[in-house]
Amino acid sequence: MSSSTWEIVTSALPQIITAAIQYTIPLTLISFVLGLLLALLTAMVRLSPIRGPFQIIRGLFWGYVWIFRSTPLLVQLFIVFFGLPNLGVQFSPWTAAIITFTLNVGAYSSETIRAAILSIPNGQWEAALTLGMTRRQVLFRIILPQAVRVSLPPLSNSFIGLVKDTSLASSITIVEMFTVGQQISAKTYEPLLLYSLVALVYLVICTVLTILQGYLEKWTSRYVPTQH
């Protein structure tokens, strides 16, 4: 590695890491937590035995999931940030990114949570209700703890995917890691080197998250009998 290349690396890498700490990681964490809350609400509404006019509510949630799972995330970002101002609704880049990522995560994760809840045998509902537990108690004490274990791998994958998807926030002027790489590349004329550094930081972050995912899966499965 030449001295000039090394100078670029030592100068750019701290800036890329700083952007990760200031923007990429907070954007991921905030959006994912809010997205999970929305996903849980969406899954519960779609699974609830709603009758009569309240079926419209379930239909609205179904429509929300359908729209956000059927359109590209980049298009959603552009609609929220560039499109809604035409209707008099304007958000800062940070707020627009959080709203879009939250809605996107909520749509995908709601299907994961819904499938996890449906995977629990109905016999457990019936047995718990027979013992005098309310449906709320059965849900939060018996069904959801098992559903968490089932849904953990796909939800973890969604979280790791969101870390990488935050690079799309550069398209609405958020100065996250990819944007920093672009800016430095424009000054140094070293796109391969700079984008490789950005990829390296993403690789490290996602590798750490993958390791943590493995530990979480083991911890949530600690009471599950192993099959030989």
Structure keywords:
mainly alpha; single chain; MetI-like fold; 228 residues; 8 helices
What is the topology?
Blueprint: H1 3-47, H2 55-69, H3 73-83, H4 93-118, H5 122-130, H6 135-165, H7 177-188, H8 191-220
Helix pairs in contact: 1-4, 1-7, 1-8, 2-4, 3-4, 4-6, 5-6, 6-8, 7-8
Subcellular location: Cell membrane
Main location: membrane
Pfam families: BPD_transp_1
Give a structural overview.
This protein has 228 residues and is mainly alpha-helical. The protein has a single domain, classed as MetI-like (MetI-like fold, Orthogonal Bundle), CATH 1.10.3720.10. It has eight helices and no strands. The chain is flat. The mean pLDDT is 90.
CATH homologous superfamily (4th level) name: MetI-like
- Give the H and E element order: HHHHHHHH
Mean pLDDT: 90
Could you list the spans in which at least 5 consecutive residues all have pLDDT below 50? none
User: What is the CATH fold-level name?
Assistant: MetI-like fold
Anisotropy-based shape = flat
Helical residues, percent? over 70%
Family: Belongs to the binding-protein-dependent transport system permease family.
GO molecular function, one term: L-cystine transmembrane transporter activity
Protein name: Amino acid ABC transporter permease
Main location: membrane
In short:
The chain has 228 residues and is mainly α.
